[in-house]
Amino acid sequence: MHIQLSDHFTYQKLLRLTLPSIIMLVITSIYSVVDGFFVSNYVGKTPFAAVNLIMPFLMIIGAIGFMMGTGGGALIAKTLGENHQEQANRIFSLVVYLSAIFGMVLTVLGLVFLRPVASLLGAEGELLENCVRYGNVVLLATPAFILQFEFQCLFATANKPGLGLAITVAAGMTNVVLDALFVAVLPWGLEGAAAATAIGQCVGGILPVIYFARKNSSLLRLGKTAFDGRTLAQVCLNGSSEMLSNIAASLVGMLYNIQLLHYIGEDGVAAYGVLMYLGMVFNAIFLGFSVGSAPVVSYHYGAGNTTELKNMKIKCFTTITAFSVTMFALALLLAEPLAALFVGYDRALFALTSHAFFIYSLSFLFFGFTIYTSSFFTALNNGPISAAVSFLRTLVFQVSAVFLLPLCIGMEGIWWSVAAAEAMSLCTSLFFLKCLQKKYQY
After folding, report:
1. Is the distance from CB of 238 to CB of 71 less than 8 angstroms?
2. Domain range for residue 183?
3. Strand, coil or helix: what is 223?
4. Largest CB tally within 10 Å, which of 135, 346, 354, 369?
């Protein structure tokens, strides 16, 4: 059964539409998980801590892909809903071309600032050198990294989520196989893990360009365009919340690492890295669902179909609730097995990670609602509200919690701060949804 953006969506059809996007983003999130597994078990604890310490900086650089993908996708889907096919293709082409250019610029800036940033985060000695060795290789693939994130959003807009999934699976498998080869078989260590990630990102970022540059059966095709500052500003404004969310999450990750180095040391950074791996995968599930369903919301908003907007809101939030409860239960079950998988070779580190995992799991009950609320307002082309939801969640609630709670209850406050911040973010999301319900009639 072929699914179109103009359809009426049941729960079954909604899951069929969003499943490819969910799997795409989960596979992408597994890049870091795979690197972490091989580095921890085959290279050592200090290199593992280095990967976790520098990863937020690398994710900040790639965040522009989410901004261009979600912001561009919302505007393109709205334009398609208004039946302006040629204009949609021009916007699509502009977004892709500019993203590649931004990626080249960010590669240079990343290489220049890598060592100073790692040092600022508290790395020194062997830990600092490991951060630089890993980051120097991964940064070379920044343009492809940005395009990969972007196309994961735009494949849904082009009504080709299945093809996007196939390309992402190919990229993910490339990363896994090369990680095993470069780290477990060949003695390439950190550089090998970084090279595997970079090559996987190139597969995920370059293959979509080849597909859309040729005649294809999707709703979109790369072609001639012209610079349009007004359109670019709208794309950036629409997607600013997603970029802000990713940048802020990375900044918060840096702050957590700084606090953990202060209170616990390298073991704290390593333990937090394991928590982040599961958090990244679960976050990808919510984000994938949001990305996959957003074009439908944008389409019906552009078409003025308020009945379907209400239908999408009810079904999406019900689905998010089911996901949240399921993920919380899974996190409790997987806490000790995952801790053993990554750091089972160190008894003290295993105990620390397992304990932190149980506390951190509470956040899975809340953060899916905030992620979807931000995406929902992006789909409605309301970038400011979407950005406000993300800003409060990360740069206000999480930053406040990670600094204040340790002062009140010591080291335990670091682990509790995530759940506390996500609970406050949920309340904020519900407030915005209620206040703007009459305006959008959802």
Report:
1. yes
2. 11-440
3. coil
4. 135
